[in-house]
């Protein structure tokens, strides 16, 4: 069961930061993920978040709580900050900028990396949903498709970069289409290579107000949503870059990876579902024939 508050999250950190086994220390990482741009009329959808060791999250929780209290905030909400609503009402632009700079410094010093997965709604309709709909294949919803790419990208990068990591995933509950992630994750557990499926140990859902990690996942998702509609200033990382190689290319400690679901990626992911379904059919056909 997930802890119900940031303070309880920190208590969990102290108990689970390292899981020791003979001649092996497993380092636990947690990824907090939020969605942006899933509303009607949005041109692009984003799944974004940050990943850190549990010890890093404990330090972040403590310092971020101080920042919130100093600014008389009960929790962080990026959209309300941008529009000056609710607790951010009457904030001047200079005050917003000071707060944002302090928040970004806390994130950079207390996270391993960030990520942003982007997909346009028009591409999804044209290149994924439209056209052939193979029998026996359940296509992903928008959230599920973004989550599938996350499970393809981050675990592979962590396996290349780190020794004995384990990844816990927490999703922001209530996002449209989030239930599709349950099915995607079950297929990942069943079909991914053991070295990857064993690496991702847990996935849960929680409310944004209860987790500081989800509140900064909201920060990167909302920021990426606006950046994708403009001219984002991006650093290009090699396709198979490790965390260490990516960190060496930027002037800050926590690189943010941008993974796009292009039409080619959509076609590839769809074809993999079709191929997997066909493989299952042939398997059961052979099994019935031999029985």
Structure explained in plain terms:
With 291 residues, the chain is of the alpha/beta class. The protein has one domain (6-290): 2-Layer Sandwich (Nucleotidyltransferase, domain 5). It has eleven helices and seven strands. A hairpin with a 7-residue loop joins strand 2 (24-36) and strand 3. Helix 2 packs antiparallel against helix 4 (93-109). The longest helix has 28 residues, at 263-290.
Keywords:
291 residues; Nucleotidyltransferase, domain 5; alpha/beta; 7 strands; 11 helices; single chain
Structure, briefly:
This protein is an alpha/beta fold and 291 residues long. It has helices at 6-16, 54-70, 78-83, 93-109, 121-129, 142-161, 180-191, 194-197, 212-228, 243-247, 263-290, and strands at 18-21, 24-36, 44-53, 113-120, 165-172, 200-206, 256-260. Strands 1, 2, 3, 4, 5, 6 and 7 form a 7-stranded mixed sheet that branches.
